[in-house]
Specification:
Order of helices and strands: HEHEHEHEHEHEHEHEHE
Structural class: alpha/beta
Number of helices: 9
Oligomer: single chain
CATH class of the largest domain: Alpha Beta
Radius of gyration: 18 Å
CATH architecture of the largest domain: 3-Layer(aba) Sandwich
Largest sheet: 4 strands, parallel
CATH topology of the largest domain: Rossmann fold
Strand content: 5-15%
Strand order of the largest sheet: 5-4-3-6
Helix content: 40-55%
Distance between the termini: 36 Å
Number of domains: 2
Bound molecules: pyridoxal-5'-phosphate
Length: 265
Amino acid sequence: MLSRLNQFPRIPYGPLPTPLEPLPRLTRQLAGPQVWVKRDDGIGPGMGGNKGRKLGFLLAEALAQGKRKVATFGGLQSNHARMTAAACAQLGLEAHLFFFEKRPSSLQGNLLLDQLFAAKLHFIPFGGGGNASMTLEQTNRLVKLVARVMAGRSLYFMPVGGHTVTGCLGYVEAALELQEQVEVLGLERVTLVTAVGTGGTLAGLLAGFHLLQSPIRLLGIDIGKLWKAFPASIARLASALCAALGEPHTFTPADVPMIEGTYAG
Ligand SMILES: Cc1ncc(COP(=O)(O)O)c(C=O)c1O
């Protein structure tokens, strides 16, 4: 798997591997199993965050295709959009960020940073999905069309959260990293709990742990209740990742370890 993974070009955002750190006070407070945190918040660029793993693969693909414009979308305070804006500024690419909401009266937080990173901001106050009326794939197809109309045909389009096979290779790599760390630390009966927004992180980890035959269990917590038939989309992406890495495997929605909806919002 590693040799296949290494064939995909990537921009090495890091530093990798990110540390796996114990949280002794939280562990004491919860009086349950040991709690550790994987510090993906330290991955650059643009003030960091877990999306750097996906961006490294996605933007390397954009450069390899000779694209000069990159378009993506998300919520107004999207970390994925902010990191995309920063990375594009660094690479000399033009970032187009689409938000399916009204332009706020003042740009704050990540929106302000998006602007400082010279991204072109497009506010369209209707129809960008994310209310469980469409699947993730339908939403991405619709927004890709809008982006092409508004920013030109020759652009590299990144779905919300970098949710593609190319992007989510970053989380197959994270699975490898984690498996090694868990072995070195001698941790047993490990369950990895992750937030689920677009499901790319979960799909990458699911495919990665499957390919590694890892004993690490996974639990995703859906934070948004955003997409119709969400487990099916995650299963399709995890299956496509295994195929891209030369070891086909079909995941079904029932294989996706996610608590959907309960904690959303
Ligand atoms: C820290 C963190 N982990 C995981 C995720 C899940 O990302 P996704 O499901 O879009 O891959 C997010 C989403 O924003 C996040 O902020």
